[in-house]
Amino acid sequence: QVQLVESGGGLVQAGGSLRLSCVASGSIFQINDMGWYRRAPGKQRELVASITRGGVTNYRDIVLGRFTISRDNAKNTVYLQMNSLKPEDNGVYYCNAQVQIKEQGFMSDYWGQGTQVTVSS
After folding, report:
1. How confident is the model at residue 103 (pLDDT cuts 50, 70, 90)?
2. pLDDT at 81 over 90
3. Rounded CA gap, 4 and 42, in Å?
4. Given this model, what pLDDT does residue 30 score?
5. Cβ atoms of residues 58 and 64 within 8 Å
6. Are 98 and 34 in contact (CB under 8 A)?
7. Is the pLDDT of residue 54 over 90?
8. Are 20 and 37 in contact (CB under 8 A)?
9. How far apart are CA 87 and CA 102, in angstroms?
10. What is the largest CA-CA distance in the chain?
11. Neighbours of 97 (CB within 10 A)
12. Are 96 and 34 in contact (CB under 8 A)?
């Protein structure tokens, strides 16, 4: 069993910053890709940023230069530093991880419960 728990969301004014954290726990053998997704009101969930185990990153164009994804493999944790936040960044942010658990020989996707980010103008 694997659980992902996000934290760090909240209410911030436009131009402000938030740092999201996601900690994976359970019978983890290895975590490969990790990522942050978000679901804005009235929209489907979309990829915000991803990072491989080796640290290669990918960002949605609209967050380039503002958001930074990072990870600490020793802590099974991924972070999303969000600067210069805009109202269009509003939404529930979800952590995703590709995990191989100790009792399984394949990778599976796991999701956190989500953390709310609200940006006021």
Report:
1. confident
2. yes
3. 25
4. 94
5. no
6. yes
7. yes
8. no
9. 41
10. 48
11. 23
12. yes
Instruction: Pull the structure tokens for residue 73.
Output: 């493999």
Output the six-digit token pair for 60.
């949605």
Asked if 22 and 93 touch (Cβ cutoff 8 Å), the reply is no
Q: Which amino acid is at 83?
A: N
Q: How far apart, in Å, are the Cα atoms of 114 and each of 10, 65, 79, 88, 105?
A: 12, 23, 13, 17, 27
Q: Three-class SS string for the chain?
A: CEEEEEECCEEEECCCCEEEEEEEEECEEEEEEEEEEEECCCCCCEEEEEECCCCCEEECHHHCCCEEEEEEHHHCEEEEEECCCCHHHCEEEEEEEEEEECCCCCCEEEECCCEEEEEEC
Kind of pairing between the strands at 57-59 and 77-82: unpaired
